[in-house]
């Protein structure tokens, strides 16, 4: 089964803030198929700029953002599991967000209400109910996706047999908040931002430079100093004319410009503001949770040694908090990789093989 769909709940969504979104649409994709047990589904939660296209459906399909993890023979094995991935609330890849039309027909833009990680999970759960899935094999996610998996674990621990949280944190540090603040300042200070109303102006490109700069700043937090040094060092690379702003002669700058262009082509600036605000506000253990230690699922935690965003320290802290909440962390692994935060998306030796073992179904037949 290979399927991309849209789901619209038939009632308004009341957000954790108390505000209401009168109409919500969710873009999702499915891979593999449910088995007779009805419990072989893995829900994949995406990170900040991801979408529902986690993996290729066929070899000639467009690449997915997690082809290393999801697919035939991969740890999230689509020959064995039924996999669902949906674009988050507040996103810009099919699910309702700031660029969707509001009740007056105009794009919400800056009027889109603040959403939380809990709201994202609530929408995903509604989608699963619509698909007739009441119990999951796993919920898995990295970074902001890991925050969603954590929130899901704390609020609805009975929903899945295991929860796998990768390169994530129970809450952002001041350093994380600062990086997001600088990214948002870059977007807002671009004259093209137009107080967030750029989508209402016909032909207006929006805050292209601001969003691009935000991505360059953020991308630095996704890589390690070591990986930048190894990939680029002080190698010089002239800028191609007509490819955007350029100030220096170095390859690393051309690389960041490339990352900026790619994001600008696929992402909305107001979504960027909305989703980074949700990430910043998330504080998993600041409110009551629903975990009953007697019925607790398996929890797996992964970090990467060179991750300067949500590294081993964040994960150790999360481990302590989960234990204090009565949850048993079945597996915690800090993988040695120089790739930084985005290592969770890459073919890192040891990491995927270990994930394969942890996710392996014990009682599911191949479908
Ligand atoms: C929907 C989604 O994709 S969202 C979630 C995940 N995806 C992202 O975050 C996208 C941006 N992130 C990245 O690219 C991440 O670094 C990763 C982890 C996904 C990929 O890492 P790696 O495989 O190590 O790739 P790397 O960081 O070297 O980037 C390769 C890209 O940079 C380009 N590049 C490399 N060096 C240079 C250079 N000197 N000048 C210009 N461009 C360069 C490559 O051509 C390649 O471009 P392409 O992606 O358009 O094919
Ligand atoms: N680089 C990934 C992970 C960020 O945490 C993304 O853009 O979603």
TrEMBL record:
GO terms for biological process: homoserine metabolic process; methionine biosynthetic process. Pathway: Amino-acid biosynthesis; L-methionine biosynthesis via de novo pathway; O-acetyl-L-homoserine from L-homoserine: step 1/1. It is found in: Cytoplasm. Residues 41-345 form the AB hydrolase-1 domain. One of its GO terms (molecular function) is homoserine O-acetyltransferase activity. It catalyses: L-homoserine + acetyl-CoA = O-acetyl-L-homoserine + CoA. Keywords: Acyltransferase, Amino-acid biosynthesis, Cytoplasm, Methionine biosynthesis, Transferase. GO terms for cellular component: cytoplasm. Substrate binds at residues 215, 342. The keyword Metal-binding does not apply. It is an enzyme of class 2 (transferase). The active site is at 143 (nucleophile), 307, 341. Its EC number is 2.3.1.31. Belongs to the AB hydrolase superfamily. MetX family. PANTHER family: HOMOSERINE O-ACETYLTRANSFERASE. Homodimer. Transfers an acetyl group from acetyl-CoA to L-homoserine, forming acetyl-L-homoserine. This is Homoserine O-acetyltransferase. The lineage of its organism: Bacteria, Bacillati, Actinomycetota, Actinomycetes, Kitasatosporales.
